[in-house]
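Board notes (copied after class):
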Amino acid sequence: MGAVTVGARSHPSPYAAYDRATWRALAAGSELPLDAGQVAELATLGDRIDLDEVATVYLPLARLLALHVAASRRLWTAQSQFLGASTAKVPYVIAVAGSVAVGKSTTARLLQALLAAQPDTPRVDLVTTDGFLHPNAVLESRGQLGRKGFPETYDRRGLLRFLADVKSGRGEVSAPLYSHQSYDVLRDQRQTVEHPDVLVVEGLNVLQAGSRTDGRVPEVFLSDFFDFSVYVDAAEHDIEEWYVERFLALRRTAFQDEAAYFHRFADLTDAEATATARGIWAATNGPNLRTNIAPTRSRARLVLQKAQDHSVRKVLLRKL
């Protein structure tokens, strides 16, 4: 069973499409290194996923990525032999992009766990770009707090510097951390990345080209540092519903904490909470998706297309 090419003959596509059965068959005979409890722990709130979905979608993807990592190492060895000089191997960097509430965090965590189970990639680190958001105080001073998640609300220079250091082979690089409970960057806590075999970078903005204040195109893009990229895709109306469902779930859980940034929403009725979530989507997340995130889908090496029930119905892989 082979891939189904996307598009009619008169409209060729750079992607080949795989349905669920075809994609799952690529990992036939492979043992799933996770159990149901581990999968539940890796899933983000509201992202419905089970062992069958992991075996169907994410295990074949992890095997494909393992092939790419191994090929990258072979090329490094061959180049070192050709040049007669050896430089330190640098991490293989995988980007995971997509909208708020689409499930990209679950995808990134699953890939980290599945790749770490491979015999040749013992160390796999995961960094989210949330830590590179400007602190709330900075966003408030700029009048941008209501646009949190838009490209201009990130310290893109800091993120570029972090990725450049990783890809330069620095032994120890640190990234800022973010708290969804306080809805802000943690001032005194950082994550240390110490020369992993694979680094997964997850976030809204990882495939965006960005811009400069003078209107000129920046000379360096985040994508310059990625070896592979995954975009988690779904219809906007489905993502909005998932966002509303997650907001209602958080109102019953995390928002109950008096220290939570969104504690003021804890006592809303279902109708009030639904209206509030839809208002946030209409004002911020929807426009950001349409303007900045969805247009980057075509830059991804692989696209996971989700259905209304959160299951991945089709995998699009860019042709080599």
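Comment from the instructor: Residues 5 and 16 are 5 Å apart (CA to CA). Residues 51-83 form the longest helix (33 residues).
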